[in-house]
From TrEMBL:
InterPro entries: OMP/PagP_B-barrel (IPR011250), OMPW (IPR005618). The keyword Secreted does not apply. It holds the Pfam family OmpW. One of its GO terms (biological process) is transmembrane transport. Residues 1-20 form the signal peptide. Gene3D superfamilies: 2.40.160.20. This is Outer membrane protein OmpW. It comes from Thalassotalea marina. GO terms for cellular component: outer membrane. Keywords: Signal. PANTHER family: OUTER MEMBRANE PROTEIN W (PTHR36920:SF1), PTHR36920.
Length: 231
């Protein structure tokens, strides 16, 4: 009789009704978030070299502490805010062939051009699917605003006269799929994958007079693995 009663209580705690988010519930999550930019290279435009050049740049990936806040409007719909510690990315230069060595050092293919840091706060609407288990999948769509700061050329490009690196802020959409796996009525594990539309223009100078720019489609895939608590 005692075992039956304990089993009934546990089943009640782990029932779909108990585990589902309800209106007013707040989830707070923390864990690892990886930003992997689009692998496509961005072409570089330099006025003094007649416009488009053989040069291109790419941006590497980075992993930081991710934070996530979810507010449930009802058992299916929720609003999510994604935050994180600042992401730092190395910018690599490629394909300097075809440019006069007197204008640019052509032996820098694959060298680190500089580093940029950004914050990508994202607000999304989530839809949770009804399930009869502790596994709660969802889809989401939202808006992203990415702020770039601490843009800086590395030592080698600086010695060649590169300076005043600046990236414009970006405003775009975000799409995601994810799932919560509830460990009990309060704790859960969350995994998500999202695509964020981040397009920016990088502007810089070579010396005092030569201006250059590059349209960079960062467009990263963002992977998160977090643990969350329901309040």
């Amino acid at each position: 009789m005692k075992k039956t009663l304990i089993g009934a209580v546990l089943c009640s705690l782990l029932s779909p009704l108990a585990l589902a988010g309800n209106a007013g519930d707040i989830y707070v999550r923390g864990g690892l978030t990886n930003v992997t930019p689009d692998s496509d290279k961005a072409g570089v435009y330099v006025e003094a070299l007649g416009g488009n050049t053989p040069l291109s740049i790419s941006v590497d990936d980075n992993t930081q502490l991710g934070l996530n806040f979810v507010y449930f409007l009802d058992k299916n719909w929720a609003v999510e805010v994604l935050a994180a510690t600042p992401f730092s990315h190395d910018v690599t230069i490629h394909d300097p062939k075809g440019i006069s060595p007197g204008v640019f050092n052509t032996n820098v293919n694959g060298a680190t051009l500089g580093e940029v840091t950004h914050l990508p706060p994202t607000v999304s609407a989530l839809y949770y699917f009804d399930t009869s288990s502790a596994f709660k999948p969802y889809v989401g769509v939202g808006l992203n605003y990415t702020i770039f700061f601490d843009e800086e050329f590395s030592k080698a490009p600086k010695s060649l006269g590169f300076n005043d690196l600046e990236l414009d802020s970006s405003f775009g959409y975000a799409l995601q799929v994810g799932a919560d796996y509830h460990l009990d009525d309060n704790w859960h594990i969350n995994a998500s994958v999202r695509y964020i539309d981040i397009d920016t223009e990088a502007n810089f100078k070579i010396g005092d007079a030569i201006k250059g720019s590059a349209d960079v489609d960062v467009d990263p895939m963002v992977y998160s693995l977090m643990i969350g608590y329901k309040f």
